[in-house]
Fold this sequence. Notes:
The structure is a single chain. By secondary structure, the chain is an alpha/beta fold. The chain has a single domain, classed as NAD(P)-binding Rossmann-like Domain (Rossmann fold, 3-Layer(aba) Sandwich). It contains eight helices and seven strands, in the order βαβαβαβαβαβαααβ. α4 links the parallel β4 and β5. The mean pLDDT is 95.
Amino acid sequence: MAAKTVLLTGGLGSLGRAQARAFVSSGFNLLLLDLPEHPGASQFVEQLNREGRETVRYVGVDLRDPERARSEVVALDEEVGGIAVLVNNAALIINRPFESFSIAEYDEQMRVNAGAAFALTQAVAPGMKARKSGSIINFCSVTLGGEWEGYVPYVASKGAVLGLTRSLARELGPYGVRVNAISPGAVVSEAEMRVFGARFSEYNDWVLKRQCLPGRIQPQDVADAALFLAGDGSRMISGHMLDVNGGW
């Protein structure tokens, strides 16, 4: 895995940070993408570089503009000599009754969660096809199972990501490029606390009753799955959605 370059979007969220550490500790070079001027970005990158010998670079890109993001990643791909792994981890999630969402808010979640994944795949695919190798990892969600309320635009976007994953696996497979998705369950995260803070205890009990396994899913559990799909151990896996949900 050494010397391969990973582009990880949403790199400063709870899941993103765990994946970033996993990739760096496994010898990957890392392009850590999140919003421009994100608070805490420089400190986290400095920490990773102390651990990984200057192999991490921060890329400030706003995925609400997928067209511009694609152009910037095309330039990055050329500059670094080829991105070997693309992880479309970034997501915008809002919890509200669906009647209260405007069309603009719906479009924004579709743009960030699905449109950006499409655009960045377009950016890295030519190089991967030319090298006859590459791994694209998209992020779906346990909410696709239909047991969650208040996430209609988010769930719709994740359905689009699943379709994108399966169709791209077919198109890119002949060139040796694998496309898979990870579907995390209810992961302990900052986003979870932000959404359920005042009713966290009730929410926690609800989650545990629906899992086959006891205990809560941690960001590292998702990072381990991403590392597997990025590496050669999954070389014959494509078009697959890997559930990391405790047996939901």
